[in-house]
Please model this.
Amino acid sequence: MTAVRLPVFFRFAPLLFVMFTSLAFAQGYDATPQGRALIEEMVTKHGYDQERLEALLADATRIDRILESISRPAEKTLTWQEYRKIFIKPERVERGLKFLKEHDGAFARAESEFGVPATVIAAIIGVETWYGKYTGNYRVMDALATLAFDYPPRSRFFRSELVQYLLMTREQGFDPLDIKGSYAGAMGYGQFIASSYRHFAIDFDGDGIADILTNPVDAIGSVANYFSAHHWRGGESIAEPLGGHLPVDSPLLTPGLKPKLTVTDYRTAGLEPVLMPSDDAPARAILLQGREGPELWLTYHNFYVITRYNHSHLYAMAVLQLADELNKHRNPDRW
Model:
């Protein structure tokens, strides 16, 4: 077969594309139309120093690994059996018990003031960062700029978070280029995104700074405050396993995370929940694929509150079961 010679332009087009793309990245986000629009907004609306912001956006780096990671979160790709193995481990329980003991005073005060069990607060921090051990290796400025400017599916959300981050670091006196976090820009012991940091992080040790990045006491109080602000109901149950079975197309398996039915609806169907005495209490059944087959659970309002932290019933179930394991070891006489 005779070789077909492409015109010079087409033979060099891929190389030219790479060169122009590299040049665009080399210019920095401060030189892009989206970056310039953000700078104008921050200067005119929030009184941000223009030169400082230009320098921050010029320094921010696009990271392709972040774009890859956000397209395949574990909550959407794993079964409950696979997801559970990641978080419910003896070593995570052991470290959680140590963390609870180390900060017993802060946990007791948080539970008293906000009504959120100490073990639930600890489980959140345990699931998120292994009690502060793994808080993320990406510069938050890089993560948020990458997602705000180079991830169209959620650019609006992450652009808003970038604005919140710039405001938060200014308020707290942090250098925006110093803070590291997750690929989605979540920070600290409890992995708060910037808007959550501004709204729910609190100074729980009285030193005048709401520092959930390096201060476990502030993190404990802030997680409890987050749940309180999302209407946690102290003393109420979170979820319970049911002995019955529901087909996957059952109308009792409602879509969405928020409970749309009541305990009465499930009792009428022949299921027997025991932890929630009120018949009109909101409830939602979920069907999970566990190690020994399907698991049917009935979840309540407080389970839904946990999903406000991470919009996944797998995540909420991991928090619940880690909290239960911590409870079993802290109070063995009750189990």
